Amino acid sequence: MRDSHKAEHMKAILTILFLTGIFSPPALAKNDFQLACSDETPTLGVVIREVPEDQTVVTELFAFQGMKVIYPSLANFPSYLRFEWPRQNCQKFEAYAMKCEHTSEIQTIEGHRVQALSMESFNKIEQRDGQQVLLRKTLLRLSVDGVTHEIHGEFSELQCSDSGVFRSEPEST
Q: Which of 19, 161, 170, 173 is exposed most, by the fewest CB atoms within 10 A?
């Protein structure tokens, strides 16, 4: 199967899984952190959630059109990456803002030694077209064979959900 067909196939499968709730995490308690963001295309999706029963924070990265689209130097990586941190290595700041540090476990992905060094999600207000816009930003720092890579995500607040499932359409206000 050609790369473009593979990307379309993966995109369709992931879309179906999210819309049917197969990938969605269980309902979390009110104080547990949960964020799912996906851009319009969709090209990039990010899910960050606490898993209270395991005392972990999970970060999942979905490259709907393949990693080469969002981060060309990791083009041979799979379209789905998952990293975990012990809860004690993470700090919540405000709604949708969290930071995890002190690395995750080392994984072997496509023959490379990969370790998530840190993950951040934060809110930022920016001026766009003369209006203030609230953005949800994410940053995942990875060490791949000892070289640091940063994968940035930027989403409008309408592209994010606290349900742990990507929104299929923006909510009406």
A: 173
* pLDDT tens-digit readout, 42-53: 899 999 999 988
**DSSP structure string for 3-27:** HHHHHHHHHHHHHHHHHHTSSPPPP
The answer to whether position 167 is within a domain reads: no
Helix%, strand%, coil% for the chain, nearest 5? 20, 50, 30
| 76-109 per-position pLDDT tens digit | 999 999 999 999 999 998 888 899 998 778 999 9
Provide the residue range defining the domain that includes 113.
3-161
Q: How far is CA 12 from CA 5, 18, 19, 31, 137, in A?
A: 11, 10, 11, 33, 25
Q: Has residue 52 been placed in a domain?
A: yes
Say if 54 falls within a structural domain: yes
